[in-house]
Design brief:
The chain is α+β, with helices and mostly antiparallel strands and 210 residues long. The chain folds into two domains: 61 residues, no CATH class; 143 residues, minor pseudopilin epsh domain (minor pseudopilin epsh fold). 39% of the residues lie in helices and 25% in strands. It contains four helices and eleven strands, in the order H-H-H-E-E-E-E-E-E-H-E-E-E-E-E. The strands form two sheets. Strands 1, 2, 3, 4, 7 and 8 form a six-stranded antiparallel β-sheet that branches. A hairpin with a 2-residue loop joins strand 5 and strand 6. It starts with a helix and ends with a strand.
Length: 210
Amino acid sequence: MALPAAKACLPILVHGTLNNRKFNIRFYSSNPGRTNGFTLLELMIVIVIIAILFSFATLTIRSSSPEDSIREEAQRLQRLIQLALEEAVMKNTEYGLEFKQNSYQFLTYTGDQWQAIADDKLLRERELPENMEIDLAIEQTDIIIGDTTDNDDEDSDDEDEEKPRPQVFLLSSEEITPEFSARFSLHGIAASYMVNGYIDGKNEVKADDF
């Protein structure tokens, strides 16, 4: 008779175990202190925040006007000139600055000739953005710059024509000679910016309208 009693109790024990599991599941699901993942609301909030940040980033990129681009290039040259002057004083060496129509580069004097600085990430040659140009004035006299060579001298050597030739010197005495003005401009844009260098080593950026 013991065997039927055991069989009769078995469903009750199984049923009780299943009920306890269901109770535990409901308990942990309703427990606010337990985190099992992000809710739909939290995911939607994160998506909205990302969308807002992306919109601000897009607006910032689009708000860069041609005038801002001109000013940034002029300010970059001004900071690089100041850096080159400081290095000239520290290293007791002479630097040069060669302007071209769409680029400029810093040079160093090796004792017998000027050489472009190639191993310096900051004082390397700088190419201007498309359609941006530099107009150079030395001691208030406009200078024609570009890649054109002088064809009047038939005896000139092609290699000599390719040698760097600085128009401005940045000396170890912390002087800039001769005084110069470099105007940065874009085709079709009335605004421009000037980088002015003075004999006492000071240099500045000024807005200049054509």
